[in-house]
């Protein structure tokens, strides 16, 4: 992708386990956002973290941002079968007119 | 109301047809977007409208023609498309260009 990559590309875990996805990007950013997409449907916004923040929580979600390494991680704790989806990070930068660039995505499968 | 609606949900068209995709939001957002998403790929930005004016065109072929009739509506006019244009077309809106983007469910387009 234009901005970066996510890993792993695919992740399969059992219900109740934690899932960690990583996102790397290439340029300086204003903020980084995580989205979820169920198969063939629209994207649902999960969380936004600004460039001056290091960690944010929202329910079972924890996002970290390391601007020195140009990377972010999304942790989903106590996963459920309903968390099965593709997860994308998206970055926005003032240098690039705040255009959104999406990472390549992680396909998460949570087995019941 | 945090919903972005898109019509139609599915569209099948021939290469000589003219059709339009519609997107609507009633959140008072001033920025609206069109994205194209191919299977197993992240969304790719096509157009950005800010305050009803086209602000970004990501070098999209002229067979795709966007239109923003008012602050709540965004259209994408399609003409003489190619089979490779088959994809999920996503509309999004945000309060301003640096804010969280809210996505519609998408239109699944098939070009025969």
Structure in words:
The complex is a heterodimer of chains A (112) and B (112). Chain A is an all-beta fold. Helix content of chain A is 0%, strand content 56%. In chain A, strands 2, 4, 5, 9, 10 and 11 form a six-stranded mixed sheet that branches. In chain A, strands 1-3-8-7-6 form a five-stranded antiparallel sheet, with no helix packed on it. In chain A, a hairpin with a 5-residue loop joins strand 4 (31-37) and strand 5 (43-50). Chain A is globular and about 45 Å long. With 112 residues, chain B is an all-beta fold. The model of chain B has no long low-confidence stretch (mean pLDDT 93). Chains A and B meet through strand 4, strand 5, strand 9 and strand 10 of A and strand 5, strand 9 and strand 10 of B.
Q: What shape does the CA trace of chain B take? A: globular
Structural class of chain A: mainly beta
Uncertain segments of chain A of ≥5 residues (pLDDT<50)? none
Radius of gyration based on Cα positions of chain A: 13 Å
H and E order of chain B = EEEEEEEEEEE
- Total beta strands of chain B: 11
Number of helices of chain A: 0
Helix content of chain A: under 10%
> What is the approximate shape of chain A?
globular
> Helix/strand/pairing class of chain B, anyone?
mainly beta
Number of helices of chain B: 0
Main sheet makeup of chain B? 7 strands, mixed
Cα gyration radius of chain B (Å): 13 Å
The overall pLDDT average of chain A reads 91
Strand content of chain A: over 45%
Strand content of chain B: over 45%
Mean pLDDT rating of chain B = 93
Head-to-tail CA distance between termini of chain A: 32 Å
> Gap between N and C termini of chain B, in Å?
36 Å
Features:
heterodimer, A: six-stranded mixed sheet, five-stranded antiparallel sheet, B: 112 residues, mainly beta, four-stranded antiparallel sheet, 11 strands, 0% helix, globular
Q: Can you summarize this structure?
A:
The complex is a heterodimer of chains A (112) and B (112). In chain A, 0% of the residues lie in helices and 56% in strands.
């Amino acid at each position: 992708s234009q901005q970066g990559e996510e890993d792993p590309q695919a992740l399969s875990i059992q219900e109740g386990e934690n899932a960690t996805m990583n996102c790397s990007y290439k340029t300086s950013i204003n903020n980084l956002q995580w989205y979820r997409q169920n198969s063939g449907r629209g994207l649902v916004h999960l969380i936004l973290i600004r460039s001056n923040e290091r960690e944010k929580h929202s329910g079972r979600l924890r996002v970290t941002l390391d601007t020195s390494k140009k990377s972010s991680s999304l942790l989903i704790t106590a996963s459920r079968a309903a968390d099965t989806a593709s997860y994308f990070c998206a970055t926005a930068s003032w240098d690039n007119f705040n255009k959104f660039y999406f990472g390549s995505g992680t396909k998460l499968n949570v087995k019941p | 109301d945090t919903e972005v609606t898109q019509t139609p949900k599915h569209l099948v068209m021939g290469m000589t047809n003219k059709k339009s995709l519609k997107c609507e939001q009633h959140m008072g957002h001033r920025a609206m977007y069109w994205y194209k998403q191919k299977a197993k790929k992240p969304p790719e930005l096509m157009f950005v409208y800010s305050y009803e004016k086209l602000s970004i065109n990501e070098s999209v072929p002229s067979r795709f023609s966007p239109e923003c009739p008012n602050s709540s509506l965004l259209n994408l006019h399609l003409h003489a498309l190619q089979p490779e244009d088959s994809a999920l077309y996503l509309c999004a809106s945000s309060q301003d260009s640096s804010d969280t983007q809210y996505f519609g469910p998408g239109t699944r387009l098939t070009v025969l």
